[in-house]
Write a structure and sequence with these properties.
By secondary structure, this protein is an all-alpha fold. The protein is about 60% helix and about 0% strand. It is built from seven helices and no strands. Helix 1 crosses helix 2. It is globular.
């Protein structure tokens, strides 16, 4: 979203871009201090990384061991990256909700799913 390369982020955090890739894929866990540093470099509040976590925990959405969370598969696809980038540029919360409802309808899901 910020158009910052993994290499640039890694430089600012003092790690290699390969390490950033491991964080992004979920191959390596991110320590609290590293997460704090990422928030500062990306100029976001620490809470940004936890948006939607209540829904995720209620749905049992945390993957452990060798499981890859659905979101990683999505964001690593070309369509997923483009969709996420376009969606993040929608500033009107009502429009974002409508887009979400449209996608759920196209997927054959209800709002409760």
């Amino acid at each position: 979203m910020l158009r910052m390369s993994q290499e640039n982020l890694g430089d600012k955090l003092g790690v290699t871009f390969q390490q950033i890739q491991k964080y992004e894929r979920g191959a390596n866990r991110v320590s609290a201090s590293r997460l704090w540093g990422m928030a500062e470099v990306l100029n976001v509040p620490i809470q940004y990384f936890f948006e939607g976590i209540e829904e995720l925990t209620k749905a049992g959405g945390f993957a452990e061991n060798d499981q890859t969370p659905l979101v990683y598969d999505f964001i690593n696809s070309p369509d997923g990256v483009q969709l996420a980038a376009a969606f993040s540029r929608i500033s009107d919360q009502k429009v974002r909700r409508q887009v979400l409802q449209l996608v759920r309808a196209l997927a054959g899901e209800s709002e409760e799913d």
